[in-house]
Amino acid sequence: MVNSIVVAATPHLKKSLNFYQKLNYTALPSQERYLFQDHQMILEVNDDRKARTGLRFYKDTWEKEVKALMRLTEVKKKSQSYYFNDFSGVRIELKEGLSYISTDGSGPSYLGNFAGVSLEGMSISQMLSIYELIGFKTIMGDENSGWISISNEEGFTISLMDFDSCPHQFYNPSLTYFNGKDNLKVIDKIKELDISVTEEITYFNKDHLVDNIIIRDPGGLGFFIFSD
Known about the structure:
There is one protein chain. It is built from 4 helices and 16 strands. By secondary structure, the chain is α+β, with helices and mostly antiparallel strands. It has 2 domains: 4-96, 2,3-Dihydroxybiphenyl 1,2-Dioxygenase, domain 1, CATH 3.10.180.10; 114-226, Roll (2,3-Dihydroxybiphenyl 1,2-Dioxygenase, domain 1). Strands 2-3-4-1-5-8-7-6 form an 8-stranded mixed sheet, with helices on one face. Strands 10-11-12-9-13-16-15-14 form an 8-stranded mixed sheet, covered by helices on one side. The longest helix has 10 residues, at 13-22.
């Protein structure tokens, strides 16, 4: 069962569903929700008017973690879930109980190699303090470098980026894809599918070639399509 998912809130349900179908995300069967899979990442498209784009984590009980979180930030409870904003401003839901979401081993989307979720904030240490309380550990990078990668037991990975470290637009949260030398082919495919490009990035290329791009889904969720 998957215990970590991305929630993509949208006021444009049909446009959002079409966006993920175009990009070859795999639709998962569900009677109550719109779920998509890419690699082992599960994404829920949610058109509830009170939904917010963010992250949801499942566990039998979050009581211990919530007591610790309440010393750092405001936590709200609704039904079987606890809600709070992390220090990047992203909505986090801690839902008690099993997720009942299972993956089917489907292939990747047209976006390439999924590398996790990226978040940008004013302080890596502040952001890290939140995620450590809900089971994440540092696996790569350090604060002096301006970024770290963290992961939970499920292998769900988040990159925490420091203030003023990224020379491009940043949308919290953003799904991140790293495609190396194949990124130009991925960019061509995105344009072929008539997916709107939010930003073309030439900063990392000495020849001013557009080798990285940022796109957004109809609800505003960001996507980094990068070469590294």
